[in-house]
Amino acid sequence: MPDHSPAPSPADRPTADDMTHCVAELRAALTLHGITLPSLRVDLPSYASTCRPPAGLVSLGNCNTATARTLAAVLRKAAER
């Protein structure tokens, strides 16, 4: 069934700056743990869409198995704290 709710107001949507800063913060945090996600970026189609809730998605992209294992290990270690 189509969603006939009104499009989110600009105040409800993340701004381009918000999304860019979010990606930069995530990239910096991952770098502290020696992790690089080469395809990490703002997902522009989600930013431009009128879907509810406002999307503003960050695309984590692909990574090799070594990076995935390193990321998993960092997350496990953080969960133990």
- The portion of residues forming beta strands comes to under 5%
User: How large is the radius of gyration?
Assistant: 16 Å
What is the share of helical residues? 40-55%
Number of strands: 2
Distance between the termini: 44 Å
Give the integer mean of the pLDDT values. Answer: 82
User: Quick one: overall form?
Assistant: elongated
Helical stretch count?
Answer: 3
Low-confidence runs (pLDDT<50, min 5 residues)? none
- In sequence order, what are the helices and strands, one letter per element? HEHEH
Oligomerization state of this entry?
Answer: single chain
Largest sheet: 2 strands, antiparallel
Structural class: mainly alpha
Strand order of the largest sheet: 1-2
Structure overview:
This protein has three helices and two strands, in the order αβαβα. The protein has helices at residues 16-32, 44-48, 65-80; strands at 41-42, 58-59. A two-stranded antiparallel sheet has the order 1-2. The longest helix has 17 residues, at 16-32. It is elongated and about 35 Å long. The N and C termini lie far apart (44 Å).
Summarize the structure.
Helices cover 47% and strands 5% of the residues. The protein has 81 residues and is mainly alpha-helical. It starts with 15 loop residues before the first helix and ends with a helix.
